[in-house]
Design brief:
- There is one protein chain.
- With 930 residues, this protein is an alpha+beta fold.
- Helices cover 28% and strands 19% of the residues.
- A seven-stranded antiparallel β-sheet has the order 14-11-12-13-10-9-15, covered by helices on one side. Strands 2-3-4-1-7-8 form a six-stranded mixed β-sheet, with helices on both faces. It has a five-stranded antiparallel β-sheet with strand order 25-26-27-28-29.
- The longest helix has 30 residues.
- The chain is flat, with a radius of gyration of 36 Å.
- About 19% of the residues have low confidence.
- One of its GO terms (molecular function) is zinc ion binding.
Length: 930
């Protein structure tokens, strides 16, 4: 309070010049306001009189431009080569006003000296609160008697601004502390990792995207890298996807009202034998009977009130506007007073918000004005108080329109679109759910259920009943909406910073975005992620950062102390950095070290190919120029952006225990066969449990390309180049590395069938026919020949059928109670009474099939190798071939297989989609894969 009736001088500080001008205009009511220049020509000072709580005040309104201060290391640590990056975790940091904002600082110091109050009009989030305390620090150094207040507002409209100035509060120190924690963590982690990886890799490569290679910065950010990780992980999923064929039964019925399509309730099946059997059943009894008619009301519920992340996702999905552009346009609309503050996590309205008043303002719009009128009409019954999504940042309400506009002349198309999106979303969230009706019809054909929606049919004969094949497809690249959703769920960044993290990835050439707003990693981005992943550090995963963000939120609520969170996070990341840097440097020192020479490099024709062992225990043969450090494995992906010396590498089987180059030379790979010198043989020693038992543990082999056994073991065992990773590999199926051999196999999913309880080297789906043939033995008790059951592992004894249809035929049958496994010898047909849990008619055993031997549905043998296998894996005599099941890799039925109907005729109208031949399906097409 002032003495002698003199008005109080109040220094008001906003976050941007435009906000200062807007608030000053609202409070001065456009009259009696004087404008003068400050020290900074962009931050003017507005003066006017105003009454706060009955007290006359002389208001001085100015602004900053975002953060007034920056956090950085002390001068002696700022230069990159001034210290070891590890020291940055303990180096002193200082917060200071940078050179370009000294004029703003001088304005605040000069004006605050003659004022009694300081009112802070910064954005009402944690970042704004931190800026507020930066302003407080500058002003109180000039005048320590200032009475400091905080104005909280969410929209630049008269009602919000006048209410906030009458309800001033004290600034929140805890919010500011949370931002201080984030700034210091990001500075120390980002600087240490950025300096390390830039200095390690920049000198080793020429990066084509940089004009001055010496000034390239390969930056690391605690939020930026997990964001890149989402993009790379999806890219790897796509690259590692192996198409798998499936089969489905389609049913249609033509009537006067049109064509009704019935969907198979099973969806589809990966076992074509099973699909054919069920299809034949339907062909035998094609009459379709209605099993169920279900009519129900369907409600489409309105959306929750609009938050920042949802605004960015919808703008990207509907209008293809980037998150960065969305926030820029939303800021323009906010500062012009048309929408509320656009950075908010809140998706529920306060009971005090006058929602009807907001709708009333939209009644005059030519497009949605009539709907706004109907919403306010009690007779229409359209109004519904919006339901919340459960998020409230306690700072701002959800984004909503604050002023009517039918379209401003200066607006761009993006401004029109975003304003319309905000208005329509608000009108939708205060509306009742949309009501619809749906009729679903289920029909039964030979015990198989099919469904359709929309019409009721009591009984009919299908017009078409076809067995169709399809192929599984990989997921799509992440769209911007998908990426924002992933970041939001994982807690990476805040609503105010997520778009900045995405923009940094694009600016730093770590990722690209196509016209459909879908992201792909660049070779550089993928390389950096792979480099850290190969060392076993999931720094590109969101978990660590999400934990940090959670701790920062606890600081803002007072549940944790600032110093406690800083200490915990930095110690954790320091330990990570120490391991990473030591691994990278030791690898870099060894990069040029020689190895045992196997041959001259056939790619560069300059260096030798040498045998080396990677840190994870796996072997490789690579050019002397090929990177060997754990971190430098990322160079594999830098190929597209670098002019690296050589890229040639041969990955060896992951089941190798030992390998050594010998003095023996290969007689096939001679200098006359594309090699410039002799190719030295390698003595391999494999781990017994990781290779099929018909292969020798010791093998003298050649890496020149002539060694079939080595190639087969690579195919069977994998190379192990990504064996320790939990992500899909681009190189195909992975195998368990030697370091993982002691794990309980029941805790690890088999890489072939994805089931638990066994390891990949003993997977039942991968047992070869030869292993079955070798397993055929004589029962010690009764002298019967036996093979192991593929379902339960019990012995299956050779028996002779005595039924009318199969008298005298030989078959193997499991003796275990409850197991129905059996298989006829070659040329037989299935006679099981139960298939896939469905009882079959007696006539089922007489199904006609040309050149086709049906097999038990729970057996999934496959011949993994082609016929020219040199006699390695002979098909067991008289044992029928078994069709490929789910999880099979390359097994096929015989090329002469023909699918037929129950009458023995080819299926009408069905053709192979590979070659067009009606005599077979694509899964057995001779042209497939050519």
């Amino acid at each position: 309070m002032s003495s002698g009736g003199r008005p109080i001088r109040v220094l008001n500080v906003a976050e941007k010049p435009s906000v200062a001008k807007a608030v000053a205009g609202i409070l001065s009511q456009g009259g009696g306001m004087r404008v003068r220049e400050g020290r900074s020509r962009f931050n003017k000072i507005f003066e006017f009189g105003y009454t706060i709580r009955g007290q006359q005040c002389q208001m001085l309104f100015t602004s900053v431009t975002g953060h007034l201060m920056e956090l950085d290391f002390d001068d002696r640590y700022r230069k990159w080569h001034s210290c070891d990056p590890l020291q940055l975790y303990r180096a002193p940091v200082v917060k200071y006003v940078p050179e370009d904002k000294l004029d703003i600082k001088r304005t605040l110091e000069e004006e605050s000296k003659n004022c009694q109050w300081l009112v802070l009009w910064l954005d009402c989030d944690r970042e704004g609160e931190n800026i507020a305390f930066e302003v407080v620090e500058v002003c109180t150094q000039a005048n320590r008697h200032l009475n400091v207040w905080r104005a909280r507002f969410s929209a630049l409209i008269d009602r919000d601004i006048r209410e906030s100035v009458e309800a001033l509060v004290r600034p929140n120190q805890l919010f500011a502390d949370a931002v201080d924690v984030r700034q210091e963590i990001d500075l120390r982690i980002g600087a240490s990792f950025t300096r390390f990886q830039t200095m390690l890799l920049r000198d080793a490569f020429h990066l084509d995207f940089a004009r001055d290679n010496r000034n390239v910065v390969l930056s690391y950010g605690p939020c930026q890298f997990p964001t890149l990780g989402f993009i790379v992980e999806r890219y790897w999923e796509i690259q590692s996807h192996e198409p798998e064929e499936f089969w489905t039964i389609n049913c249609t019925h033509n009537s006067d009202e049109g064509i009704a399509t019935f969907n198979w309730m099973r969806g589809h099946m990966f076992d074509y034998t099973c699909a054919v059997i069920i299809y034949e059943m339907c062909i035998q009894e094609p009459a379709a009977t209605v099993a169920k008619v279900r009519q129900q009301e369907k409600l489409k519920y309105p959306p929750h009130p609009l938050s920042t992340i949802e605004l960015e996702k919808r703008a990207s999905r509907y209008f293809r506007i980037s998150s960065e552009q969305t926030m820029k346009v939303a800021d323009d609309l906010y500062q012009a007073g048309f929408i509320s503050y656009p950075r908010t996590e809140t998706d529920c309205f306060s009971p005090r918000t006058d929602l009807r008043a907001i709708v009333q303002e939209q009644q005059g719009h030519p497009v949605w004005g009539s709907y706004a009128q109907r919403l306010l009409d009690p007779g229409e019954g359209l109004w519904r108080n919006p339901s919340g999504g459960g998020h409230d940042d306690k700072a701002h309400p959800p984004i909503h329109p604050t002023k009517f506009s039918s379209g401003e002349s200066r607006w761009s198309q993006d401004h029109h679109r975003l304003y319309e999106l905000v208005v329509r979303h608000f009108l939708a969230c205060v509306s009742k759910p949309a009501v619809g009706a749906e009729t679903t019809v289920e029909v039964d054909i030979a015990g198989e259920l099919f469904s359709a929606s929309g019409r009721v049919i009591l009984e009919f004969a299908p017009t078409t009943l076809t067995l169709d094949s399809g192929v599984t497809r990989p997921p799509t690249l992440l769209s911007e909406a998908d990426l924002l959703n992933s970041m939001d769920k994982a807690g990476i960044g805040t609503d105010a910073t997520m778009h900045d993290h995405i923009k940094k990835l694009l600016d730093r050439c770590y990722a690209t975005k196509d016209s459909n707003t879908r992201f792909s990693p660049t070779s550089l981005g993928e390389a950096l992620v792979m480099g850290y992943d190969d060392m076993g550090y999931e720094l590109w995963k969101p978990y660590l950062r999400a934990m940090m963000e959670s701790d920062m939120k606890l600081v803002s609520t007072g549940a944790k102390r600032k110093a406690e969170v800083l200490e915990t996070c930095l110690e954790q990341m320091k330990a990570c950095f120490l391991d990473v840097s030591q691994s990278g440097r030791s690898g870099a020192d060894e990069q040029q070290a020689g190895g045992d020479i196997t041959r001259r490099c056939g790619v560069c024709q300059e260096s030798d190919m040498v045998l080396r062992r990677k840190p994870d225990g796996n072997f490789m043969v690579g050019c002397l120029g090929f990177p060997q450090s754990s971190f430098s494995l990322c160079c594999l992906k830098l190929l597209a952006t670098t002019s690296f010396q050589c890229r040639n590498v041969v990955w060896l089987p992951g089941s190798l225990a030992e390998a050594a180059v010998t003095t023996n030379t290969c007689s096939i790979c001679t200098p006359d066969s594309c090699f410039t010198g002799p190719v030295f043989m390698i003595q391999f020693k494999f781990r017994r449990l990781e290779i099929p038992h018909n292969y020798n543990v010791d093998h003298l082999g050649c890496i020149g390309g002539c060694d079939d056994i080595l190639k087969q073991l690579v195919e069977i065992c994998g190379t192990g180049s990504r064996s320790t990773s939990t992500i899909p590999s681009r190189a195909g199926p992975t195998t368990t590395s030697s370091s993982n051999q002691q794990r309980n196999p029941r805790q690890i999913a088999c890489t072939h069938c994805m089931q638990y309880g066994h390891s990949s080297n003993v997977c039942p789906s991968q047992v070869s026919h030869s292993s079955m043939a070798r397993s055929q033995g004589v029962n010690q008790q009764n002298g019967d020949s036996s093979v192991p059951c593929e379902t339960c592992g019990s012995p299956c004894f050779l028996r002779t059928a005595n039924t009318a249809n199969n008298r005298g035929r030989k078959f193997y049958s499991c003796q275990s109670q409850g197991c129905n496994f059996f298989v006829f010898l070659k040329g037989t047909k299935v006679s099981s009474s139960f298939i896939d849990g469905i009882k079959k008619p007696a006539a089922y055993g007489n199904l006609k099939s040309k050149h086709f031997s049906l097999a038990p549905l729970n057996c999934r043998w496959e011949d993994n190798l082609s016929n020219n296998n040199g006699g390695r894996r002979a098909e067991p005599a008289n044992v029928g071939r078994i069709g490929r099941g789910r999880g099979g890799r390359s097994g096929r039925a015989a090329a002469d297989t023909t699918f037929v109907s129950a009458t023995g005729d080819p299926v009408s109208g069905r053709r192979c989609y590979v070659c067009g031949d009606p005599s077979h399906f694509a899964n057995v097409c001779p042209s497939r894969g050519m």
